[in-house]
Design a protein that fits this description.
- Helix 2 packs across helix 5.
- The protein is globular.
- The protein has 2 domains: 146 residues, Zn peptidases (Aminopeptidase, 3-Layer(aba) Sandwich); 29 residues, no CATH class.
- The two termini are 24 Å apart.
- A 4-stranded mixed beta sheet has the order 1-4-2-3, sandwiched between helices.
- It is an alpha/beta fold.
- Helix content is 29%, strand content 18%.
């Protein structure tokens, strides 16, 4: 995931350790500077290609998660191409991260590759550093979308993998036919 020359900051190492210690399954990273929802992979499989579609084996799930957020957001779901983020209207307000712009070391890619957590990135507004008086509006634009996204945690298969005595099995590998990405059971 990280190239050998890539220096990992202590706080990044701490977050990586934390993510591996708690079995999170859903996450969102909030950014500013655009109005769109992105999903992994953020790093193109072809580093020489910028803006190249780079899907995960769980592409359909990630699109569904991103759409759950985008469709519940009053501005992202607005069909006007003249507004902030309007260049993503024809895509439904979502895009594969690497197709938008490729970068290495992203949290969503790390979560997908090294934990059981599916993470999207939400660009909450076109201003990178909004003024304090704009935060209330940004919160209200994103509140219902965040709640809708959090409800997605109830989608999919849930259960306990146990031995013949009913004891949970830690780190059991779970495979789904047709998706070349396994997950493991938690503690």
């Amino acid at each position: 995931f990280f190239s050998p020359e890539f220096q990992v900051a202590p706080e990044t190492k701490a977050v990586m350790k934390w993510l591996r210690s708690i079995p999170f399954v859903l996450s969102a990273s909030l950014h500013g500077g655009e109005l769109v929802v992105t999903y992994p992979y953020d790093y193109s499989r072809h580093p020489m290609e910028e803006k190249m579609f780079s899907p995960t084996p769980d592409e359909k799930m990630f699109k569904m998660l991103a759409k759950a957020y985008a469709d519940a957001h009053p501005v992202i779901s607005d069909r006007s191409e003249l507004r902030c983020g309007g260049n993503f209207v024809k895509r439904g307000g979502i895009i594969n991260g690497a197709e938008w712009y490729s970068f290495t070391g992203g949290m969503a890619d790390f979560n997908y590759l090294h934990t059981n957590c599916f993470e999207i990135t939400v660009e909450v507004g076109c201003e990178k550093f909004p003024l304090e008086e704009e935060l209330f509006t940004i919160w209200h634009e994103n509140r219902d979308a965040l709640l809708n996204y959090m409800e997605m945690v109830h989608r999919g298969i849930k259960g306990i993998v146990s031995d013949k005595f009913g004891n949970p099995i830690k780190n059991a590998r779970i495979s789904v036919r047709g998706i070349q990405h396994d997950v493991t059971t938690g503690n």
